[in-house]
Design goal:
Elements: H1 2-33, E1 45-51, E2 54-62, E3 69-72, H2 73-79, E4 87-94, E5 98-105, H3 114-118, E6 130-131, E7 134-136, E8 139-141, E9 144-148, E10 151-155, H4 156-163, E11 167-169, E12 174-176, H5 186-191, E13 200-205, E14 211-215, E15 220-222, H6 228-240, E16 249-251, H7 254-259, E17 274-276, H8 277-286, H9 290-301, H10 304-317, E18 333-334, E19 342-343, E20 346-348, H11 349-362, H12 366-370, E21 374-377, E22 382-385, H13 390-393, E23 399-405, E24 409-420, E25 423-434, H14 437-458
Helix pairs in contact: 6-9, 8-9, 9-10
Amino acid sequence: MNARANSNQKEGFAVKLRKTLLCLLLAAILLLGCGAAAFADPNPFSLHVLIGDQSFRVRAVQNEFVDNYYLSLSDLAAVLRGTPKAFAFSYRYSDADGEYFTVVTGQDSTAESGADAYGDSLRLSSFYTTRSRIFVDGQERRYYTARMGYDLYMNLTDVQLMLDLPAAFTEEGLRFFPEEQFRPDVPLLGKQGYFQSFSAVLLADADTGAVLYGFNDDDVVPIASITKLMSYLLLAEGAEQGEISFSDSVRVSERAAALSRGADAMVTLGEGQAYPFRELLSTMLLASSNECALALAEHLAGSEEAFVARMNQRARELGMDSACFYNPHGLPLYLPQAVSAKVQNCMSARDLFTLCRILLQEHPEITEITRQQFARMSSLSYTTANSNPLVFNLEGCSGLKTGSTNKAGFCLVATLPVTVGSETHTAVAIVLGSESPEDRNQAAEILLRYARFTWEEQGFVWPEPPLEPEPAVGAGLIGG
């Protein structure tokens, strides 16, 4: 009995050991499957930075993923003293404006680098990004940052965009080039895999139709609230044909009022109440109000269903064959059937560019709304900021629209008129299916900056369309 018990005990131990080893193996596989995010450190460390022949340390955080660097702005201000890209960075507070941060370019910082003062000793309980209020030379900018007391940590790409400060990773460390301009090379970035995290990307000239860069631009993808550009086209054409007027009062239906009480509502609309057409239109475009889009659609066509039918018919007439609309605003929709399908408005970036060209050429008044940073809707008792961050971050940006749903990701159509000599063309950047608003905003600004530099250097002549992006290899150039 004892021998048998000992045998069973050994067998039981062996089974437990095998199970333990199997669990450890599965844990290791899961850890590896998490990718680079599993190894990123959310705490600041001293990053080696080079400027000319001088070496510095700047506190940095690898946010969520390895090599996704966020830099301390106070440290960066300290190490850029005496260079053409010097800036003073400070925290401010007033009773009228609350808390905000200022960046004054061309002015040396008086603070010492925190990396020199603290080294690697600073530890954080959390690291998350949000839009802090930053004023650069008195102008508000909209970048995502992580606040650490009286300091901000900003993504390396946003640092280059905000300060016009190119950088590149070298064998010695991260090198900044304060004597130069940040001049992103879009074809190079494409080859390095920069655009592969997006569903589709397109950069083109609205005046000639020429395409400078495209990635998956013929793929049909959800477009979320970018839909409202198509709604605007029908409304503008309806006004042109005398069906409605932008001076109308719009009476709100039960359906539109109900939507204004939903989770995605921007303003509350009273059933049976009338509101100025222009205020509903501005709220639809700037704040991306779904309820305003529905109220305007019903005002033109009599019902949402009739308006959607016109959207799809007009898309076919204009050659936008990829377009498929289910509603005038872009929210996901459950079809009324026993096994309900969840559908979303879709189209390709190429067809979306066609829509943008028509708007900019035939109804340019849309940019009188979409270039605004802020707007007050008196009858709605509502003040809104433009949901497009590029009207804050890129001088001259004239629109056009943002959008996001879980399936569509974060989307942006941005426009930038560029004048060379006596001629002006408008660049259109389309970014669809981004994983985050930060990535979307950065990509759109990079595309438009590239268009501006190309035109200023070469005139309004586009180079040959680039080849499909190649797999990314190594770190490569960030901007140069």
